[in-house]
Amino acid sequence: MKAAVLGSGSFGTALGFVLAHKGWDVLIYARNESLVADINERHENTRYLPGLQLPDNLQATTDVAEALFASKLIVFGIPTQSLTSVIKQVRDLLPAGVPIVSAAKGIEQGTHRIVSEIFEEELPGKFHKSLAYLSGPSFAKEIVQKIPTVVSIASKNEEVALQIQKDFFCSFFRTYWTDDVVGVEVGGALKNVIAIAAGVSDGLNLGHNSRAAIITRGLAEITRMGKAKGANPLTFLGLSGLGDLVLTCTGELSRNRTVGYKLGQGMTMEQIAAEMNQVAEGVATSQSAFELAKQLGLELAITEAVYRMLYEGLDPSRAAYELMNRELKKETF
């Protein structure tokens, strides 16, 4: 069977790798012709996953219609801020009744929509029962290296969730499923913002105590936002909540933690952006989350500090001082 992956970044490629390992014929849609040539001829994503061999049944194309034609599974590996434009580009090409899986983790700037809201508002109703969302602690490089990885599949349609769970499950990629779409989406989005804060802490050499505090109080902020959006608070103790938060806040492969780490070391956002070739979703999401929290009447102190560091030039050391010297409170989630 054929599967389409829209987006040739590291994570889209990694999910395509899992499906190819399962025997699917995978066709990745990419805009970069040289990258398409490398995937097809060298069997390597030289830009995002250099040095890692891809299977022969994972190919690429610059023609999105070709990628989608006759596909029995569609994976969106598109960053959140580009999702709306890509969905509008392809929605007339999407086959009805085929499962659609999104791997994006963010909140859209301007609209403050989480990923599931983007899909449900941009796609006609006939596609809604086919939608699912994949999240959890998963670095793309480690997936392609076949290092044991466990993720969560969220869908409002149990039949679709169970099918996608089976489609992706293999010896090195274990899948759980849940119907808490909002919880999975909020956890996946806000953990990137908290990871920037954790990176700043590490960049300032504040130690393990500070990092643990950021992770714990960051989880409180994620839970607060999730509850306001209608999520089950217990979801945030699972793979797409605590699991992904811990990985992204501590792992050396985390792009969002890297942004924060370099910020803490004194680099500017312009300098950091010039050194990175992949999107750190937390940068844009910090602004969206800050604005959404204000809209919902929520206090998210760490999220606000990250927003102010990235968009208002707040000094990282000053941000740490302000967080530590806020009004004393009861510990609540």
From TrEMBL:
It comes from the Bacteria. Residues 2-160 form the Glycerol-3-phosphate dehydrogenase NAD-dependent N-terminal domain. One of its GO terms (biological process) is glycerophospholipid metabolic process. Sn-glycerol 3-phosphate binds at residues 105, 136, 138, 191, 244, 254-256. Substrate binds at residues 105, 255-256. The active site is at residue 191. Gene3D superfamilies: N-(1-d-carboxylethyl)-l-norvaline Dehydrogenase, domain 2, NAD(P)-binding Rossmann-like Domain. Its EC number is 1.1.1.94. NAD(+) binds at residues 7-12, 140, 255. It catalyses: sn-glycerol 3-phosphate + NAD(+) = dihydroxyacetone phosphate + NADH + H(+); sn-glycerol 3-phosphate + NADP(+) = dihydroxyacetone phosphate + NADPH + H(+). The keyword ATP-binding does not apply. Keywords: Cytoplasm, Lipid biosynthesis, Lipid metabolism, NAD, NADP, Nucleotide-binding, Oxidoreductase, Phospholipid biosynthesis, Phospholipid metabolism. NADPH binds at residues 10-11, 31, 48, 105, 140, 255, 279, 281. GO terms for molecular function: glycerol-3-phosphate dehydrogenase [NAD(P)+] activity; NAD binding. Belongs to the NAD-dependent glycerol-3-phosphate dehydrogenase family. Catalyzes the reduction of the glycolytic intermediate dihydroxyacetone phosphate (DHAP) to sn-glycerol 3-phosphate (G3P), the key precursor for phospholipid synthesis. This is Glycerol-3-phosphate dehydrogenase [NAD(P)+]. It comes from Leptonema illini. The gene is gpsA.
